[in-house]
Design a protein that fits this description.
By secondary structure, the chain is mainly beta. Helices cover 13% and strands 35% of the residues. The protein contains seven helices and 27 strands.
Length: 443
C-alpha cells in the first residue's frame, strides 16, 4: 500500500484494425466496484494536445477522438503496474478488457481536446444481449439457478463466488435479462443454514456484484461474519515524514493511515420507522383458500441471533423516550403466496414461502446501510467491494493522549463501494463504508 504514483504500462484503444496507445494523454484513471452494481466500471480523463493519430483519409496527424473515430463499444486494454510490493496490478489487458460505454465532457479547440471515457466490463454489454426464456425448476436451489444463469449467459472464463442458499425456488425466465433475474433471486434468498426448524428463525438478503476477482453472489450474513484477517485503518493528524515515523498505538504503518473521512450518516430513526426496520406487520394472501395470514408484530426480536458488524442487533431495544418501538409496527408488508406459478399442472404447493424472506430482507438490507462513512487511504488494490475493514477514530477529549472511540464510530465496516484512483502524482483508494450496529463486534 502506498500513495506513490503507479506506472501506466498499457493504455490502448482498439477499433477494427487500428490500435492507439494513449498513455501520455491519460491524466487520471478511476476504477470502481460497488456491492449494488453487477459490473465494474472505469473512467479515464483524457487531455490531448497536438496530433496523436494519423488519419487514414488525409495522412495528417489528428486528435485521439477524431483519429480513432471513437463512438461506443471500442475495446480498451488497461494495465497499471502496482506502486508497491504489497499491491496488485490493475490488469485489464492480459485476459480481459474493458469497453467504451460513453464519452462525456468533451471540450475542443483548434489545438487540444479534453474528454472522459466511461468503460464497463464486457459482461455489462453481454447482459443486454441475452434473454432468459426457459423454465427454472422448483426443485433447484436459488444459488444453483444463479450459477446456471451466469455460466449460460456469459461465455467467458470469469470466475464466480456463489454462496449456497437454503431453499428451492422455481420461476420462468419471462425474457428477463440475466442481471435482472439474479437481482430478483438475491432478494428472495436465504443463506444455507439460516433457517432452523427448532426456532423458525431465518435471515434473508443477498448481494450480486462484480469485482476484479469476478462475480459474487454473497449472503449478507456471510459477508458480515467474514473471519479472515481484517485490515485496521487509523485516523490521525500525524503529518510527519515517513522516514521519521514510528508505530504509535493502533497505527503501525502510514500505509494504514486514514487521510480523510466524512461521516455521511449515523442512522435515521424516522427512516427506520418508515421502512419497518424495527417492527413491521405482515399480511400474506393465499390465492387458493382466499385467506389472509396476519402477523401483527414482526420485530428484531424474531430474528434470533444473526451476525452483525458491531454490537448484537438486539443489544438495545430502540425507544422513543419511554416507548418501546419494537412493539409498534410501522409498516405493513403485503405479499401473495406463490402457488403453482412454476408448474404447468394444477398445484397448491408453495413455490417459496414469503414468511421466510419478506420482512427479513427488508430489515437486513436497510439496517446494513444505517451508518455510512467515507474514507480515503493510500492505494490498496487488495481491497474489494464486500470486504471488511476496521476503522479506528480517536475520542475527543482534553487529555494529550486521546484514546480510540470504541463505542460510537470506531469498529468494523463493510466496503459498500470503492474507487482506486491513479494519476501522475499519486495513487489512493476511496471507500464508502457501511455497518448495521454501533460499537465493537463481539469476538
Amino acid at each position: 500500500m502506498s500513495i506513490r504514483p503507479s506506472l501506466y504500462r498499457v493504455i490502448t484503444i482498439k477499433k477494427e484494425n487500428r490500435t492507439a496507445d494513449f498513455r501520455l494523454a491519460a491524466t487520471s484513471i478511476d476504477f470502481f466496484e460497488d456491492i449494488l452494481c453487477p459490473t465494474v466500471s472505469c473512467t479515464i480523463q483524457i487531455a490531448n494536445s497536438g496530433g496523436a493519430i494519423k488519419s487514414d483519409s488525409t495522412g495528417k496527424y489528428v486528435s485521439l477522438y477524431e483519429g480513432m473515430k471513437i463512438r461506443k463499444g471500442e475495446e480498451v486494454e488497461l494495465f497499471i503496474q502496482s506502486n508497491s510490493a504489497t499491491n496488485q496490478d490493475l490488469d485489464y489487458a492480459t485476459r480481459r478488457s474493458l469497453y467504451v460505454n460513453d464519452i462525456t465532457e468533451l471540450i475542443r479547440d483548434d489545438r487540444s481536446e479534453f474528454f472522459k471515457l466511461h468503460l464497463f466490463s464486457k459482461e455489462a454489454y453481454m447482459n443486454e444481449m441475452v434473454f432468459l426464456e426457459k423454465k427454472y425448476g422448483e426443485s433447484t436451489r436459488i444459488s444453483d439457478h444463479v450459477e446456471n444463469i451466469i455460466s449460460e449467459s456469459f461465455q467467458s472464463s470469469i470466475e464466480s463466488d456463489i454462496d449456497p442458499t437454503s431453499v428451492n425456488y422455481g420461476f420462468w425466465g419471462s425474457q428477463m435479462k440475466p442481471f435482472e433475474a439474479i437481482m430478483k433471486l438475491a432478494s428472495k434468498a436465504n443463506s444455507e443454514g439460516s433457517i432452523t426448524s427448532e426456532t423458525g428463525n431465518s435471515s434473508a438478503g443477498f448481494f450480486f456484484y462484480q469485482t476484479r476477482r469476478g462475480f459474487a453472489f454473497k449472503s449478507i450474513d456471510n459477508l458480515v461474519a467474514q473471519s479472515v484477517h481484517v485490515p485496521k485503518y487509523v485516523y490521525t493528524e500525524y503529518n510527519g515524514s515517513p522516514v521519521d515515523f514510528k508505530p504509535r498505538g493502533d497505527l503501525t504503518s502510514l500505509d494504514y493511515k486514514i487521510n480523510h473521512f466524512v461521516i455521511n450518516q449515523a442512522g435515521s430513526l424516522a427512516e427506520d420507522l418508515r421502512k419497518g426496520v424495527i417492527a413491521s406487520a405482515r399480511r400474506f394472501f393465499d390465492p387458493v383458500s382466499f385467506n389472509v395470514t396476519v402477523d401483527n408484530i414482526f420485530s428484531q426480536e424474531n430474528y434470533g441471533i444473526i451476525p452483525t458488524l458491531g454490537e448484537p442487533l438486539n443489544e438495545e431495544t430502540p425507544k422513543l423516550g419511554n416507548i418501546d418501538l419494537s412493539k409498534f409496527p410501522t409498516k405493513i408488508i403485503t405479499e401473495t403466496f406463490d402457488k403453482g406459478t412454476a408448474n404447468p399442472k394444477v398445484s397448491t404447493k408453495n413455490n417459496l414461502d414469503p414468511t421466510l424472506y419478506s420482512s427479513q430482507r427488508k430489515m437486513r438490507y436497510n439496517s446494513l446501510f444505517a451508518q455510512s462513512v467515507s474514507i480515503q487511504v493510500p492505494l490498496n488494490t487488495n481491497l474489494h467491494a464486500g470486504d471488511l475493514i476496521e476503522c479506528v477514530f480517536a475520542s475527543i477529549g482534553d487529555s494529550e493522549l486521546t484514546e480510540p472511540d470504541r463505542t460510537q464510530i470506531s469498529g468494523i465496516y463493510m466496503i459498500k463501494e470503492l474507487c482506486h484512483h491513479y494519476d501522475p502524482r499519486t495513487s489512493y483508494t476511496s471507500m464508502m463504508l457501511t455497518r448495521d450496529t454501533y460499537g465493537e463486534r463481539q469476538k
